[in-house]
Structures are given as structure tokens and as C-alpha cells.
């Protein structure tokens, strides 16, 4: 988390959370997440788009991410710098997203000290017991509530 002193008559500190949104394929899940985060938190949040391919990264940038990078090295180099990492469950599963997510990407995300808030989208043949099968908009709303909880910690 970055703390900035804002100069005006009053000096106040503003917390700026660094959030990585990770997605692959067409970036649709990450786009939905990014739009909601930007709408809710505005410029109080730095949103970093990390796509497994250029199409996914572009979708996240178009949705309002501050910066974006594509591919294995970008993900490996940046995950340790984030406060929160969000995306579908598959971002911690090697060879998911039709093989786009490499073992090194999954490891970098899983090893990061950042809080991971993952949507239980069942495309990786992993069932998370207790997770509800909900439409994407409902899951993104739940994710937003979790980000608010983490923000206050």
C-alpha cells in the first residue's frame, strides 16, 4: 500500500492500494472486475492489468486499469509488489486457461505475499467445495465486498 501526503490547507494521507488483475484468453472476467473496482474506488486504487496474452491485457486497460503488461515475465516480476491479486481461480493453476498460464506464472501468484481474491469459475476442473455456482456479475460483486474488507485491514 502506498501512502501519499496530499498538500492543501490540510495535510492528509491517502492510502492507495496496488491491485493486480490477472486474466487470460479474451480478458472478459478481468474486464468485469476492473470496471467494478474502478467505479467503486476511482483513483484511490492503482489497478495493474496482467494478461497472459495481449488481448486480455488490452481488455483490462480499456476497462480502466492504470498500467498493463503481458506474459510470463511481467507476471513473475510484479506479483510480489502487489497488495491484492484478483482473478479467476485458474490463475494459481499451472496450464489453465487452455495452457496460457504457465507453471512459473501460477507459482509467482501463489507465492506472492499479496492477498489473493479468486473467483471460483470452474473452467479448470477443480471444484471448490462450499463455493456457489453464481453468474459472473454476482461473483464480481462478492469480490468487491472482499476488497473493501481487505482495504480496512
List keywords for this structure.
5 helices; Rossmann fold; six-stranded mixed beta sheet; alpha/beta; 153 residues; globular
Give a description of the structure:
The chain is an alpha/beta fold and 153 residues long. It has a single domain, classed as Rossmann fold (3-Layer(aba) Sandwich). Helix content is 37%, strand content 25%. It has helices at 28-41, 54-62, 72-78, 103-111, 136-152, and strands at residues 2-6, 12-23, 45-51, 67-70, 84-88, 115-119. Strands 1, 2, 3, 4, 5 and 6 form a 6-stranded mixed β-sheet that branches. Helix 1 (28-41) packs parallel to helix 2 (54-62) and helix 1 (28-41) crosses helix 5.
CA-to-CA gap between the ends?
11 Å
User: Which topology does CATH recognise?
Assistant: Rossmann fold
Name the average pLDDT: 89
Largest sheet: 6 strands, mixed
Helix fraction bin: 25-40%
Strand content is 15-25%
Strand/helix succession: EEHEHEHEHEH
CATH class type: Alpha Beta
Shape estimate: globular
Number of helices: 5
Corresponding CATH architecture: 3-Layer(aba) Sandwich
Query: What's the number of domains?
Result: 1
Residue runs with pLDDT of under 50 for 5 or more positions: none
Radius of gyration: 15 Å
Report the strand count: 6
User: Structural class of the helices, strands and pairings?
Assistant: alpha/beta
Amino acid at each position: 500500500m502506498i501512502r501519499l501526503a496530499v498538500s492543501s490547507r490540510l495535510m492528509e494521507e491517502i492510502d492507495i492500494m496496488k491491485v493486480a488483475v490477472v486474466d487470460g484468453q479474451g480478458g472478459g472476467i478481468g474486464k468485469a472486475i476492473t470496471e467494478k473496482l474502478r467505479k467503486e474506488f476511482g483513483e484511490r486504487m492503482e489497478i495493474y492489468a496482467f494478461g497472459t496474452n495481449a488481448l486480455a491485457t488490452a481488455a483490462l486497460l480499456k476497462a480502466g486499469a492504470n498500467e498493463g503488461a503481458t506474459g510470463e515475465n511481467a507476471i513473475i516480476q510484479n506479483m510480489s509488489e502487489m497488495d491484492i491479486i484478483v482473478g479467476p481461480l485458474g490463475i494459481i493453476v499451472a496450464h489453465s486457461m487452455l495452457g496460457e498460464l504457465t507453471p512459473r506464472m501460477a507459482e509467482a501468484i501463489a507465492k506472492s505475499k499479496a492477498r489473493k481474491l479468486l473467483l471460483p469459475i470452474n473452467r479448470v476442473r477443480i471444484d471448490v467445495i462450499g463455493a456457489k455456482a453464481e453468474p459472473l456479475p454476482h461473483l464480481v460483486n462478492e469480490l468487491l465486498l472482499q476488497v473493501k474488507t481487505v482495504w480496512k485491514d
